[in-house]
Amino acid sequence: MKKIAVFISFLTLFFVTSCNDDYKFTLDVVKKTTLNTSLSITLKEKNDKPVDKVQFFVDGQEVTANENSFTINTSDFGVGKHVVSALAFYPGKTKKINDSFEVLADKAPAIYSYKIINSFPHDTKAYTQGLEFYNGFLYETTGRKGQSSLRKVELTTGKVLQKIALDNQYFGEGLTILNNKIYWLTWQAKKGFVYDLETFKLEKEFAFNKSEEGWGLTNNGTDLIKSDGTNKIWFLDPVTFKEKKSLQVYTNKYALENLNELEFIDDKIYANKYQQNAIVIIDVHTGAVLGVADLSDLKKEMEKTQKLVPEDEVLNGIAFDKENNRLFVTGKNWGKLFEIELIKK
Ligand SMILES: [Ca+2]
């Protein structure tokens, strides 16, 4: 009796396995495409066996299917790697098939040069990680354990008007000001802090979620916008600190990693790329790199009066004075802060 049961189980297993194996699905997907392109993806069964229904998902979000295929405009999902899944329902079974596609920007970034409009003193002991212009003053955060500080600075003199230190266990990173609060990131502690704008009194701390580290910070008036050292830019709710969404930053050729200090200007994100004397201009909706400003001559300008530590005392810090349309940049421990104008080549 037992033998028969085993034999029946074996038969059942064989039957189920062979039935499963009868359906061989693949997703017909172009692996690399560009923005502003229509992309069609089709679920194929090796022997054209009929399925009852297919549901498609891009990055976990269901998209409208037309029988065994669907079409999207790549701009709706932005540049970067996207996961596509199909859930196929066929007699008595369901199967999930995963694949991916990568979207690049549809054109090369515009190249900008720059013109120095003004230069101001900057503390050579300020290892700049965050820089923002607010209500007539510069606000700056500096890094390194035991040296991390939050400062309010007078633009024209570089004089530090107000300053607090971060606990020695933390390495300070970017800052931004929103709704009369200062938000300040730490590097690898997966933590950020919130201060009162006027008093610099610590109000609360928050934890990062999926974003990896704390690098740059800015805001668009609604959300905090954070870089984490990868090619991703994260949008956080300033009250709950929920990471609402992320952008992947790509040119027409590759992903741009190590995005550092940030500034939100005219609906675009300006980012320092770590250890590169460049600022990249990013489309806030798609993540595509729209422009690159080469500031290597600005570093050379600094080196006329100051010896900079290679690969350490690098360009970092972008601030924008919206009222007067002034763009400020500096670097880690640089003795000068420059007002510059970017010029499209
Ligand atoms: Ca900034």
CATH domain topology of the largest domain: Methylamine Dehydrogenase, Chain H
CATH architecture of the largest domain: 7 Propeller
Q: Give a short account of the largest sheet.
A: 8 strands, mixed
Structural class: mainly beta
- Tell me the β content: over 45%
Distinct small-molecule ligands in the complex: calcium ion
User: Kindly state the mean pLDDT as a whole number?
Assistant: 94
- Spatial order of the strands in the main sheet? 22-23-24-25-9-28-27-26
**How many domains comprise the coordinates?**
2
Query: What is the number of strand segments?
Result: 28
CATH superfamily placement of the largest domain: YVTN repeat-like/Quinoprotein amine dehydrogenase
Distance between the termini: 86 Å
- Along the chain, the helix and strand elements come as HEEEEEEEEEEEEEEEEEEEEEEEEEHEEE
Low-confidence stretches: 10-20
Name of the CATH class of the largest domain: Mainly Beta
Evaluate the radius of gyration.
26 Å
Instruction: State the helicity in percent bands.
Output: under 10%
- List the total number of helices: 2
Overall geometry comes to elongated
Keywords: Transferase
Pfam families: Glu_cyclase_2
Protein name: Glutamine cyclotransferase
GO molecular function: glutaminyl-peptide cyclotransferase activity
